[in-house]
Design goal:
The protein has about 350 residues and is of the alpha/beta class. It is built from eleven helices and 13 strands. The longest helix has 21 residues. It binds nicotinamide-adenine-dinucleotide and uridine-5'-diphosphate. The site of uridine-5'-diphosphate has 14 residues, from helix 7 and strand 8. The site of nicotinamide-adenine-dinucleotide has 27 residues, from helix 1, strand 2, helix 5 and strand 5.
Length: about 350
């Protein structure tokens, strides 16, 4: 079975390529390297001792995508390629609507043409907006609060209409909660450009003294210690969820939606304290005001993914903190420089 992975050099895509190769799939990656580096391909090969085919290019490029499908005998696609920075999507919404929607539409057009109708799509828990109840179930109302989240909801709707128009499609929409951590080899992990927006990459920069302290955005939420609560999921667990989703779309037709989270919420302070403890490092922090648009608490009910895909997360918060730190330390030792 040959799987096309769009955005396969990125954070979640690279870990998923590892899982695919280790599970006997052939892998073709297309990535324009707008948020990743080509050496990730060599790292995936080094971890798995398997080969993969890499195309450097844009999924919005219909000619390129047609060439890839004409040359490779693709059986199924996992579509990661997208822009994902919430803040940037607010200041530059057109960039997000253009890339995230165009890439999906071009991809689906070419898939239809070549009669490849098995698709796993990366959506996000951000489609739920500010949930009225917890834990979050797939059936909850969808109301994203920023342009990035709106692109994900629009794509979910496009895929639903596509399936309604042609029910030979088989589509799994995966709504990720908060992916963190890195592969145990320390070779691949999250490597954001500039000053990170997300909690774990920011903590990693404080741990390595690249940034002096963490700003904790509010300690007056109605949570265990007043700081925000999220459902952090180890990226390797998340990637294994994609293998189950690929198996599912290869077997059935239909469109379905799955929360990929652990079902456990942790506060910012719990993450900071666990990171400091398991890695024996000090994480300086200051409490500052709430970040606009943040919600107090968000965690999944992942039981539907277990029922339908037989998938559940197995790694805990200590693994997530340990593997994040070992990725950053290993890459520092090898002369890693910020982009
Ligand atoms: P990432 O930025 O690390 O990976 C995305 C990859 O896609 C990058 O390698 C980038 O170069 C590539 N890319 C972007 N636009 C492209 C295009 N038009 N053509 C070809 N390549 C393109 O992001 P990630 O964290 O691995 O996220 C993967 C997917 O999961 C995205 O769709 C993202 O929206 C979604 N997601 C991520 C998170 C998260 O917190 N990381 C949470 C929920 C959903
Ligand atoms: N957070 C924080 N300082 C930071 C980044 C994040 O206190 O520098 C908090 C944020 O307010 C939220 C949690 O950490 O409660 C997770 O934030 P992240 O941006 O990683 O994920 P999201 O809010 O998109 O779920």
């Amino acid at each position: 079975m040959k799987v096309l992975v769009t955005g396969g050099c990125g954070y979640i895509g690279s870990h998923t390529c590892v899982e695919l190769l280790e599970n006997g799939y052939e892998v073709v990656v297309v990535d324009n390297l707008s948020n990743s580096k080509k050496d990730v391909v060599d790292k995936i090969k080094k971890i798995t001792k398997h080969d993969l085919t890499f195309y450097q290019g844009d999924v919005c490029n219909l000619t390129l995508m047609d060439q890839i499908f004409a040359k490779e005998k693709i059986d199924a696609v996992i579509h990661f390629a997208a822009y994902k920075a919430v803040g940037e999507s607010v200041t530059n919404p057109l960039k997000y609507y253009q890339n995230n929607l165009d890439s999906t539409i071009v991809l689906c057009e070419v898939m239809s043409k070549y009669n490849v109708k098995k698709l796993v799509f990366s959506s996000s828990a951000t489609v739920y907006g500010n949930p009225k109840k917890l834990p979050i179930k797939e059936s909850f109302a969808l109301s994203p609060t920023n342009p990035y989240g709106k692109t994900k909801l629009m794509i979910e709707n496009i895929l639903k209409d596509l399936y309604i128009s042609d029910n030979t499609w088989s589509i799994a929409v995966l709504r990720y909660f908060n992916p963190v951590g890195a592969h145990e080899s320390g070779l691949i992990g999250e490597d954001p450009n500039g000053i990170p927006n997300n909690l774990m990459p920011y903590i990693m920069k404080v741990a390595t003294n690249e940034l002096p302290y963490l700003n904790i955005f509010g300690d007056d939420y109605d949570t265990i210690d007043g700081t925000g609560v999220r459902d952090y999921i180890h990226v390797v667990d998340l990637s294994k969820g994609h293998i189950k989703a690929i198996e599912k779309v290869l077997q059935d037709t239909g469109i379905d939606y799955y929360n990929l989270g652990t079902g456990c919420g942790y506060s910012v302070l719990e993450i900071v304290n666990t990171f400091a403890k398991v890695n024996n490092v000090k994480i300086n922090y200051k409490i500052v005001s709430r970040r606009p648009g943040d919600i107090a608490c968000c965690y999944a009910d992942p039981s539907y993914a277990y029922e339908k895909l037989k998938w559940r997360a197995t790694k805990g918060i200590e693994d997530m903190c340990r593997d994040s730190y070992s990725f950053v330390m290993k890459n520092k030792e090898h002369g890693y420089k910020n982009k």
